[in-house]
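Subject: sequence -> structure tokens, single chain

Hey, anyone have a minute? Need the predicted structure for the following. Not urgent.
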Amino acid sequence: MKIFSTPFALFLCCGICFNAAALVYIPGLASGSSERAMTAADIPGISTRPLFQEAVTVNGRKLDMEIFRIDTTPDILERSIKSRFPSGKFDRGQDYLKVVYQIDKERSERWLFVFSGKQQAVTGFKMSFSGTIPPPGKWPAELPPLPAGSRPEMVMELPRLNAVYGSFSGNDISGVQQLVSYSARMASAGWYHAGAEHSPAIRGRGEIYFRNQPSRQIMWIQFGTDGSGAFYLKKLKK
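Reply:
Had a minute. Here:
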């Protein structure tokens, strides 16, 4: 999956900055080795407590996710972590840094740091678990059907937020074409788009939708340039 430029608009509805990349990164990098878990002393400017904690289910497996605010720059953050965890695996993009390493023979720890822009705080997503994440099972019925030829990569359930997320890959249709096609499907199902990214003139690859029936819901759709994509559905309280 290569969806790492997703804007933070996804969680405006619940007041939490959340990025689809935080979910996509879990089954990715191979883990390096370490002798301990990362602590607040290893991360300059991190909040003393998580901004948000959620028990989530990833591909049927229950995990805990924590989200932190980090008041530092991406470069300082990366240098600090690399100096303390030189054996970890790092993946740095324009708006993210992924860090993966083994704590011991059984447990691994994975962080995703999302950069919001100059003079903006970094958001850190943390997950620790033992073993491996299994492949996804049944695609959630609440989400739009998978595009033809696609295969699911991850399904995450967030009970506290009353939300579900699914990502996929494996088809050759451009993200622009897919968004146009899915916008028509969404309209026929009673959804209203929040922007105009789906317009052929704009050639966007992501859009947010709302509907009030059968209940108040928000849907976020994002397609990559490589046949990948992700859907996120949150049911809102009345």
